[in-house]
Structures are given as structure tokens and as C-alpha cells.
Amino acid sequence: MRKDAQRNVERLRAAAVAAYHEHGLEVPIEEIARRAGVSPGTVYNRFGGRDALIDAVMPDLLEARVQEARRRAEAEPDPWAAFALYVTLLCELQATDPALNDAVSRRYPDAERLTEMCDAQMGSARGLIERAQADGALRSDFTVEDMAFLLWSTAAIVRATAGINGQAWRRSLALALDGLRSASAHPLPVPALTEPEVHRAMIGLGSVSARRTSR
User: Fold this and answer.
1) Where does the record place the HTH tetR-type domain (predicted)?
2) Would you give the DSSP letter of residue 135?
3) pLDDT band for position 183 (50/70/90)?
4) How far apart are CA 34 and CA 203, in angstroms?
């Protein structure tokens, strides 16, 4: 790659990171190109489109944060506390960074690396869930797919309360976690979503984001 082309790639990556941190992954390609001082066509030429650009920058930003959350949770000796800590730390990522909020609560079909990382995060949650259930602390019918409900609700609350009350999501999460304790469990009215259903729903959320930015 020529030096000027490499500089364009580096400028686009930096512009994308800054824009995503400020506004989330809905930022139009045209805005990122403007910040980088290049044409929108350069983004398509170098990355191939919105999802590909997201995939070029977001996995590296997300991986270390998720690994740290998993490490802290797995070091917690109490099974319920470990599960609750992991959920809380993921929600903190959502609350503190619009880009991470979108990354963990949505799916972008052509962002393959990011999808793999987020799917692996759900796998990590599975072990914490099973440990808490084996201890009798977490209701036995909670599934790893149900984690999506916690992430979706936090995502919506964070967006709705931005600039109003940055801690409102903590109250919602505390209410949800109390409802997940086995001692307060009642039979659920419908089965859990399947893994493909969760994936389709998250892709739908990402598609809504794409339609908004294309207007």
C-alpha cells in the first residue's frame, strides 16, 4: 500500500474511533470521511462499507474491556456475586461509551470479528450462569440468551437518560437482578429465545441503525 493510502487508512481509523466514542456506531460514513479529510468513496475503497469499518476498529477497542470484566468476575468467589458483577461491568461499558453500548447490544452482519467476539462473551457468561445456578442462587430457567434482555434494556435506558441521569440504568439493573434470584422466582410465561432468535433480533437493531444513518 502506498504511503498516502496508508495515511488515509490511519486517518479513517482515528476518525472512526473518535466519532464512535462520541455518537455510537450510527455515525454516517460521510461524517467519518469528513473528519478524516477524505472522500466517502475512500472509505468504501479501503474498508468496503459501514460494517467493515466497524469491524476494523471496534474489536480491538472492545476485547480488552470485556476480558477485564470476565477476569474480575471469575475471580469473585461467590457464584451469585460473580454473575452479578459480570453483568454490571458489561452494563457499565454500555453506560460509559456509546460505541461499546452499540457493540454489545447489536449485531452487524458483515462485522465478522466483532460478532465472533461478542458471541464469545456470551459463552463466558454461560459459565458464570451455570455456576450461580449450581449454587442455587440464580433461577434455574435463566439462559445465556436471556442476557440479551439485560443488555437491550440497559442500552435503551442509557440512550433515554443521556444528559439527564447517567446512573439511572443502575436502578433498572438492580431491579432486574433481584428478579433473577432463585428465592423470588416464579414460572415464566414463555420459553427463552433461542440463540438464532437473539442473533436475528440484534441484527435487526443494527439494521435500524443503518437505515437511520442513510437518511
Assistant:
1) 6-65
2) T
3) confident
4) 27
Evaluated on CA atoms 40, 210, 105, 51, the torsion sign reads negative
Residue 62 in grid coordinates: 472492545
Residues 30-47: tens digit of each pLDDT = 999 999 999 999 999 999
Contacts of 105 (CB under 8 A, 6+ apart): 94, 148, 151, 152, 154, 155, 202, 205
Contact 79, 131 (CB under 8 A): yes
- Provide the phi-psi class of 78: left if phi over 0, else alpha when psi is between -120 and 50, else beta: beta
Per-residue model confidence (pLDDT) at position 4: 75
The answer to the question of residue 17 being in a domain is no
Decide if 167 is inside a domain.
yes
Length of the chain: 215
pLDDT at 208 over 70: no
Separation between Cα atoms, residue 12 and residue 124, nearest integer Å: 32
Task: Evaluate whether residue 10 is within a structural domain.
Answer: no
Task: For residue 44, report the phi and psi dihedrals to the nearest 5 degrees.
Answer: -65, -40
Res. 83: pLDDT tops 70: yes
CATH number at residue 128: 1.10.357
Identify the domain containing residue 168 by its residue range.
Answer: 58-213
Question: Which cell goes with 137?
Answer: 442462587
Any idea what the Cα angle at residue 201 is, between residues 200 and 205, rounded to 5°?
115
In a domain, 84, yes or no: yes
What does the mean pLDDT of the chain come to?
Answer: 91
Coil, strand or helix at 133? helix
